[in-house]
């Protein structure tokens, strides 16, 4: 908990945004979700370890992420939940809230407009549009579906800052062009296709099928049997710990001639080396005296 709530030198959240890595921004959104839950539970102070565990990161990474926000906590005390939450909201640009227009009143669009979590996180769905005569004029979550042809005319009154696309692939680019022409600065698309937009327009894509494929890969990787530690004859596979074929242990040198078959020079008993007992019994091994 600290009385300092702004960044050093009174720098605002907007000034800090340019210096925060994208990966940190993603985690800040996670910290904000956790802090909102803690606030709902009446928690006033949270330690970095507790917040890190709840967010699924280690405490060192959490402290580094929060360092981009300026001083926010006191060593040995923790973070003021309300103040840290407000600080992250400021940096993420949520302090003033956002108005959202939804394009597409199909199953996905109706599910999104009916989701109550947007409002508590600073997002207000201001309008919903579609081109299907069967749904135009219908009301969902208190919003009447408007004709997509009215989009440009309705934008000034709705004053949205973000548009969400829940339309089929073949319609996504046309709708994107309409939104760009209407002056929308940020677009979130649930269509898996890539959208072309000017550099000043931020476009993010949510590909649910791709996310499912990543989960499928993780599940397949976790279920894959581990490679055997020792190679089995005739298996046709080389285990991880089997040395390469040019390793001395895999070579087949000529048998060692017995010592009695070699002509040796007679020496006095006292000249026998004291390391005789440690000499290797087979070729291919190296033992340091």
TrEMBL record:
DNA-binding region location: 30-69
Cellular localisation: Cytoplasm
Cross-referenced SUPFAM superfamilies: NAD(P)-binding Rossmann-fold domains, Winged helix' DNA-binding domain
Residue numbers spanned by region Disordered: 240-289
SMART domains: CoA_binding
InterPro entries assigned to the protein according to its UniProt record, in alphabetical order: CoA-bd, NAD(P)-bd_dom_sf, Rex_actinobacterial-type, Rex_DNA-bd_C_dom, Tscrpt_rep_Rex, WH-like_DNA-bd_sf, WH_DNA-bd_sf
Keyword Cytoplasm: yes
Binding site for NAD(+): 104-109
Composition skew (Low complexity), residue ranges: 269-278
Biased composition (Polar residues): 279-289
Domain CoA-binding: 93-194
KW Iron-sulfur (keyword) present: no
Gene3D superfamilies linked to this entry: NAD(P)-binding Rossmann-like Domain (3.40.50.720), Winged helix-like DNA-binding domain superfamily/Winged helix DNA-binding domain (1.10.10.10)
UniProtKB keywords: Cytoplasm, DNA-binding, NAD, Repressor, Transcription, Transcription regulation
TM regions (residue ranges): none
Family: Belongs to the transcriptional regulatory Rex family.
Described purpose of this protein according to its UniProt entry: Modulates transcription in response to changes in cellular NADH/NAD(+) redox state.
Assembly notes: Homodimer.
Protein's name according to its UniProt entry: Redox-sensing transcriptional repressor Rex
Source species: Nocardia rhizosphaerae
């Amino acid at each position: 908990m600290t009385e300092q709530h702004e960044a050093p030198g009174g720098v605002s959240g907007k000034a800090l945004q340019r210096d925060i890595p994208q990966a940190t921004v993603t985690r800040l959104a996670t910290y904000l979700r956790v802090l909102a839950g803690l606030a709902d539970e009446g928690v006033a102070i949270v330690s970095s370890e507790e917040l890190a565990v709840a967010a699924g990161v280690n405490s060192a990474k959490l402290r580094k992420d929060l360092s981009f926000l300026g001083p926010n906590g006191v060593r040995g005390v923790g973070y003021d939940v309300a103040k840290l939450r407000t600080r992250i909201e400021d940096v993420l640009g949520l302090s003033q809230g956002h108005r959202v227009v939804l394009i597409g009143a199909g199953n996905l669009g109706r599910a999104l407009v009916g989701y109550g979590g947007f409002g508590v996180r600073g997002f207000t769905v201001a309008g919903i549009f579609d081109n299907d005569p069967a749904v135009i004029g219908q009301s969902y979550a208190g919003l009447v579906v408007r004709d997509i042809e009215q989009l440009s005319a309705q934008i000034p009154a709705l004053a949205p800052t973000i548009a969400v696309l829940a339309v089929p692939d073949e319609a996504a680019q046309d709708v994107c062009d309409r939104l760009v022409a209407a002056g929308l600065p940020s677009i979130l698309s649930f269509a898996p296709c890539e959208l072309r937009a000017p550099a000043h327009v931020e476009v993010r894509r949510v590909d649910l099928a791709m996310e499912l494929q990543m989960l499928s890969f993780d599940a397949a990787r976790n279920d894959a049997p581990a490679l055997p530690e020792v190679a089995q004859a005739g298996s046709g596979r080389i285990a991880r710990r089997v040395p390469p074929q040019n390793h001395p242990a895999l070579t087949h040198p000529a048998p060692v001639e017995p010592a009695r078959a070699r002509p040796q020079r007679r020496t006095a008993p006292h000249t026998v080396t004291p390391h005789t007992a440690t000499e290797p019994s087979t070729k291919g091994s190296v033992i340091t005296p």
